[in-house]
Amino acid sequence: MTRTKNRGKCNHLHLFSDMNELTALLVSTLTVDDFLKHSAEMVARHLGAQVCSIYLYDEPSGELYLAASTGPETSGRTRIGVGEGLVGHCVSQLKPVCEGIVDRSPSLVHFEPDPENVYQSSLVVPIHRGPVRIGALEVRHEKPDAFDESDIMALLAASSQLGTAIENARMIMDMHRDGGAGPEPQAIPPGTVLRAAIASEGYAYAPAAVYRKGGAQHLLEPLPDDAALTPEDFRMALDATSEQLQALQSGFARRLPESASLIFTTHFMMLKDESFTGRMIRLIEEGTPPARALSQVASHYTALLLSSPHEYIREKVNDIEDLVFRIMRNMRKAGHHDASSGVNRIMVAGRLFPSDILRLVADNVQGIILVGGGTTAHVSILSRSLKIPLLMSERDELLLLPEDTPVLMDAYAGDIYVNPPQKIVRQFREREKARNMAARKSTDVSAQTRTKDGVRVRLLANINLLSEVPLARDLKAEGVGLYRTEFPFLIRSAFPSETEQYLIYKRLFDEMKGRPVIIRTLDVGGEKVLPYLDAAPEANPELGLRSIRFLLSRRDIFAAQVRAILRAAADACDVRIMFPMISSLDEFLEARQVVLESLDELSREQVTVCDKPSIGMMIELPSVVEIMEELSDAADFFSIGTNDFVQYMLAVDRANQRVSRYYASHHPSVLRGLKRIVEIARNKGKDISICGEMAHETIHLPFLLGIGIRRFSVDPQFLPRLQESISRISLDDAREYAEILLSRPSLKDIQEIMADRRWAERFGLQGQAGYRE
Length: 773
Ligand code: PEP
Ligand code: MG
Hints:
Elements: H1 12-25, H2 32-47, E1 51-58, E2 63-69, E3 79-81, H3 85-93, E4 97-99, E5 121-129, E6 132-141, H4 149-180, E7 193-195, E8 197-200, E9 203-211, H5 231-255, H6 260-263, H7 265-272, H8 274-285, H9 290-306, H10 311-314, H11 316-334, E10 346-349, H12 354-362, E11 367-371, H13 377-385, E12 390-393, E13 406-410, E14 415-418, H14 422-441, E15 449-450, E16 456-463, H15 469-474, E17 480-484, H16 486-490, H17 498-511, E18 517-520, H18 547-553, H19 555-568, E19 575-579, H20 585-604, E20 614-619, H21 628-634, E21 637-640, H22 642-650, H23 668-683, E22 687-690, H24 701-706, E23 711-714, H25 719-726, H26 731-743, H27 747-755, H28 757-762
Parallel strand pairs: 9-10, 10-11, 11-12, 16-17, 16-23, 17-18, 18-19, 19-20, 20-21, 21-22
Antiparallel strand pairs: 1-2, 1-6, 2-3, 4-5, 5-6, 7-14, 8-12, 9-13, 13-14, 15-16
C-alpha cells in the first residue's frame, strides 16, 4: 500500500455534504441509474480519480456486476466473481484493497489485460451492512501510487454513507432486472388455468394488481391530466383521505381489535403534520402543481426514512407511500381522473410479511397469490384468520400480469383462472352461494364431541386474532387450545407494552370465561420477523435465536409478557401457560422459573393475579421424544405442534414450496414419534393435545385417535367438520388402523394404506379431503 500523494484532490468534507444531498434526491428526481452515475461522478471528482465504478453484488449468482461507471466505456468484464480480482477480493474479505500498480499483482487483476495499460492505481472499498454484501466502490487513476490512507478513509466513509441508498437502489434494479432480464416469462394467455398450493381456503374474483413493497414510486409519476388539478382538489383530497382512514380504522376495530388503534397512527400524524401536508399546501400556494407538490414532499420524507440505519424506521416508508397514494388517488378522483388502485384487488406478490397483510386488508384485498415461495408460515395462518384466500404458485409470469387482469382464485381446489370466461365465473358464483348456505347449516354443532362408540373427545380452538373468538364460541369450542400471542407483536410496528398486552389477553380470557385457555408465550424469531427488533441477520434463522431461546435471552420481554398474562387471567378459571420450541428439560425449568419469579414479584406488589396457572410446553422438536418421561414429571400439560415437529424431524422448511414433497406428516418416524409421546404423557396422567395442522386434516384423524389423542385444537372454521368426522369413527377401528401404519417402515407403504378405500369406508370418510371418492 502506498502513501504517496500523486494527484490533486478536494476537501473530503465536501464529499459528504454533497452526498447527503444526493441521497435525498434519490427518490425524488433521479432514476436509480442516474443516482448511481451521479454518485460515481461525485466520488471520482472529490477523490481526483479518473474513473469511479460502482459494483453491486448479485446474491443468486454470487457475482458482482458493474452498475455505474464514470470515464470511458470499459471494454473489460462487467461481471466479476467474489474473490476474483481486486474488486472480488475486496468484497470477499469485506476490506479495502489499495494497489499502486495494478499490473503488479496479476492474481488480483479483475479486468481483462488493459491493452493501453491506462490505470496504474486502484482503490476498492466494500459496500456492506454488517456481514451482508451490497457491492463495492472503486476509484482508479493512471498514475501509480495515486491513493493514500486518507483516500481509503474517505472512500470507506462514502461507501457507508451511500450504503443504504445503494441497497435500496439495488433492490429496485433487481426488481427491474427480475422483470426484464433472463428468460422472459411468457405472458399468460386469457383463459389459462394455473395450479397452485392452497394456504388459505376461499374463493375470489377480482382484478389483479402486483404488489411491490417500497415500489409505489410509479404511483407518483405524473399523468397528463394532472396539470388540470387545482389547489381545491388537493384540499378535498385531504378531507376525503381523513374520512376514509377513519372509516377504515373503525372497520379494523372489528377485524383486528389488537391493533386497530395503531395501524393508521403514522397516517393521521402525517396528515396533520405541518411539515408534511403543511409544506405541500405552501408549495401549491406558491404555484407548484398539486401532484408535483405531493410527490416532492413525499420523496423528501421517503429519502429521510430510507437513510435510517434502523429497519423499523425504514419500514415507515410504507406508511408514507400508502398515505400519499391515497391522497393522490383522491385528488385525481376529485379532478375526475380515473386511477387504478390496490383496493378490492387480488394481489399477486413475490414476498410478504405478516405486517404487509395488514396493508392489504386495509385495501380490502380479495385474495392473495404468492409467487415463488416468498412467504412465511405465519402469513398463511394470518390470512386464514382474516379469511383471505391465499394461493402459492411457482409461476413467475404471474408477477407480470397486466394491472387489472381479471383473475379468479379457487382456493378450495388450488386453481388460478386468468381472465376466465364469464361462464366459469357464473359457475363459481353459484358454487360459492351453495357453499355459504351449507356452511351456515354446518354451524349446528353439539356441545360435546364423541366417537362412534361414545368416547369423549375435546375440541378446542386455535386463536390467532381476537376477532376469531366469537366464531370459536359459536362453534362450541370447549376452550382455546392454542393462543398464538405473537400476532399482536407481528402486526405492530413496536413492542406492545405490558399494559397493552394485558388488555389483549384480558379480552381473550373474558370472552372465553369458564373455559380453559392455553396461552403460548411469544414465538418469534426464525421466519416470524419483528422488524422493530433490529436483530442481527442469521444464516439459519429456523435454527437460530428464536422462540423460547429468544425469550430466555430477553428476560425483560419475557417477564413483561408473563406478568401481563398473569394479571389478565386474575378472574379466569383454567389458565395454562405454554412455552414453544422447548428442546430440553433444563430449558423448560428455566422458562418455568420466569413464571414463578413473576408470580412472586406480582404478589410482593400486591397485584391480583391468577396465582396457580398450569405450566406446560409444546412438543415441536424431535429432541424431546427421548426425554418425555422426565418432561412429564415437570410439565403440567403438553400440546403437539406438528407443523414444527414434522419440519424439524424431517429437516424440511415448512414454508418452502420447493421441498414440500418432503414434508410428509405420515413419515414413519413422525408417526412412531407421535405414538411414543402420547403414550408416555397419558401414562403419566398429563393432558396432551395436538394443535398443528395435522389436527384438522381428516386423513390423519383415525391415526391420531388410534394412538390416544383425545384433545384436538384447530382453527375455528374446522370445528364442525372435525366433530362430524370424529362421530363416524370407532376407536377399535382407529387403534387397529394405527397399529398397521406403525408397523410399516416406508412412506410408500403407509401412503397405500392411507389411500385404501376400504379404510375410508370403515371410517365413513369416503370423499372427504385426502380420501378418494
Ligand atoms: C406448530 O408448530 O405446529 C404450531 C402449532 O406452532 P406454529 O404453527 O405457530 O409454529
Ligand atoms: Mg410451531
